[in-house]
Fold:
Amino acid sequence: MATIAALNLPDEVHRALCVRAAKHGRSVEAEILDILETTALPPDRVKLGTLLFNIGREIGLTDEEVAIFDNLRDKTPAKPISFDE
Structure:
């Protein structure tokens, strides 16, 4: 898991984060994490697989044709990129 340091955070922003965290009953770190997750990964975002599925339906692919593509696709989890090599 990655770590991020926020440098030169204005006092006003820090105070606002403290108030917001207290309001939600969690630590400032947990509040910041929630803000970042919600912003970077909004629940209503369109995922690539869903988008491609919908395009397939729009062009008239049948359930059988969709099943063929599903059986052909690589379902192996992607390996994270490493910059240490």
